[in-house]
């Protein structure tokens, strides 16, 4: 019996050392969270100190909600929802309350969520009466055989699941209505009137080593013909896979769909982790370590978006606990916190270097 248990212990030790380096690293109990509240043209001179403080407080509030979940051993999925719900309820952001208007004067909401443990995912598009679309997306993931529901069907499912609804007045704000009117009166594009996008998202790593990502938005001002952006499209605006990373995107959705931004970043990082784990020589492994990954990967994918003519940004969390940003706009409402004591919120691009340092 003793011989058997010694043999099992020896096998277990062998198994641990046979794991790729990255898998051993991921076994450390640490957590991290990154959030965004949209990216776009943001000029510090055009923002009053009060408005800036309001955005920073809202971001910190969302970060705190997620930190409380993660620091207490909660799941990355719960942390993502804890961060996104208050941002959806805050009229400052283009998600839930405060969503932009469609050409026809409605607020049509999109959201998606993904669990990196098993790549289960849920998404909704074009819902108009669900108070927190991110919770509906999660209900699609857990309680339906589907991944993506639209419009009235999604709302019928929400009512069967007892999700909280809100009247149109809850979502509609004066500032967003004015943006639509300006757009129509002067034949401007959504980018001219929005300047900043305001979509919200969160990505998290929990102490069990699981990753999750979620994104919620009203889309783009003046959207027509049932237009769907990247936010509810799994692989474009949202992706999570424990083997690689968790990503939530914001920006000009058409380009993010074309590049498949979120899954492209995760695939490239997954490939890198495999390459690193099985690198034959220590020199090769060292060389790979020195490359600016995963920041370099995210920047390269965002560069592709830019080359096609699009703009925006992404937030990323890795299994190693890094929380990163990459954006090609002048600003992105963002924040991050880790179990190593990092806690920061930022808006403008001037602090991008500091904000994108790895912990
Ligand atoms: N990506 C969103 C969309 O295209 C907009 C945004 O991020 O602000 O619908």
List its traits.
eight-stranded mixed β-sheet; globular; disordered C terminus; alpha+beta; 359 residues; 12 strands; binds aspartic acid; 21% strand; single chain; Glutamine Phosphoribosylpyrophosphate, subunit 1, domain 1; four-stranded antiparallel β-sheet
Short structural summary:
By secondary structure, the chain is of the alpha+beta class.
Strand proportion: 15-25%
Outline the low-pLDDT stretches.
Answer: 8-26, 352-359
Could you give the count of β-strands?
12
Q: Which ligands, by name, code or SMILES, are bound?
A: aspartic acid
Oligomeric status: single chain
Counted up, domains total 1
Based on secondary structure, the structural category is alpha+beta
How far is the N terminus from the C terminus?
A: 46 Å
Q: Level of helix content?
A: 40-55%
Mean pLDDT: 89
Given the structure, what is the number of helices? 14
Biggest pleated sheet: 8 strands, mixed
**General shape:** globular
If you had to describe this structure to a student in words, what would you say it looks like?
- The longest helix has 23 residues, at 49-71.
- The radius of gyration is 21 Å and the shape is globular.
- The chain contains 14 helices and twelve strands.
- With 359 residues, the chain is α+β, with helices and mostly antiparallel strands.
- The protein has helices at 2-18, 21-26, 49-71, 76-89, 133-143, 151-160, 168-171, 174-186, 190-194, 253-259, 261-277, 282-290, 295-308, 352-355, and strands at 32-40, 109-115, 120-127, 148-150, 200-205, 211-217, 238-240, 246-251, 312-317, 323-327, 331-338, 343-348.
- It has a single domain (27-355), classed as (Glycosyl)asparaginase (Glutamine Phosphoribosylpyrophosphate, subunit 1, domain 1, 4-Layer Sandwich).
- The protein has an eight-stranded mixed beta sheet. A four-stranded antiparallel beta sheet has the order 7-8-9-10.
- Bound molecules: aspartic acid (ASP).
């Amino acid at each position: 019996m003793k011989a058997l248990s010694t043999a099992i212990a020896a096998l277990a030790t062998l198994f641990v050392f046979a794991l790729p380096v990255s898998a051993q690293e991921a076994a450390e109990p640490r957590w991290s969270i990154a959030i965004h509240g949209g990216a776009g043209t943001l000029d510090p001179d055009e923002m009053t100190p009060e408005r800036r403080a309001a955005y920073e407080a809202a971001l910190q509030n969302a970060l705190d909600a997620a930190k409380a979940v993660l620091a207490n051993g909660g799941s990355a999925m719960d942390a993502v929802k804890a961060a996104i719900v208050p941002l959806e309820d805050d009229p400052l952001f283009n998600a839930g309350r405060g969503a932009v208007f469609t050409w026809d004067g409605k607020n049509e909401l999109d959201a998606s969520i993904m669990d990196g443990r098993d790549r289960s995912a849920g998404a909704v598009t074009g819902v108009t009466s669900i108070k927190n679309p991110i919770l509906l997306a999660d209900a699609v993931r857990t309680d339906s055989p589907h991944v993506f529901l639209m419009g009235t069907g999604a709302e019928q499912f929400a009512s069967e699941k007892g999700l909280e609804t809100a009247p149109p007045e809850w979502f509609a704000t004066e500032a967003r209505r004015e943006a639509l009117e300006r757009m129509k009166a002067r034949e401007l594009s959504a980018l001219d009137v929005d300047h900043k996008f305001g979509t919200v998202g969160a990505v998290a790593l929990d102490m069990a080593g699981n990753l999750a990502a979620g994104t919620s938005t009203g889309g783009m001002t003046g959207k027509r013909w049932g237009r769907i952006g990247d936010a509810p499209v799994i692989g474009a605006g949202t992706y999570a896979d424990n083997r690689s990373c968790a990503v939530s995107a914001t920006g000009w959705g058409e380009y993010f769909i074309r590049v498949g931004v979120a899954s492209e970043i995760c695939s490239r990082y997954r490939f890198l982790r495999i390459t690193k784990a099985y690198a034959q020589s220590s020199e090769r492994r060292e060389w790979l370590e020195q490359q600016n990954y995963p920041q370099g990967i995210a920047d390269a994918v965002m560069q592709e978006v830019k080359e096609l003519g699009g703009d925006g940004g992404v937030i990323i969390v890795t299994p190693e606990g890094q929380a990163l940003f990459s954006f090609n706009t002048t600003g992105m409402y963002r924040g991050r916190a880790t179990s190593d004591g990092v806690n920061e919120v930022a808006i403008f691009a001037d602090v991008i270097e500091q904000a994108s340092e790895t912990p």
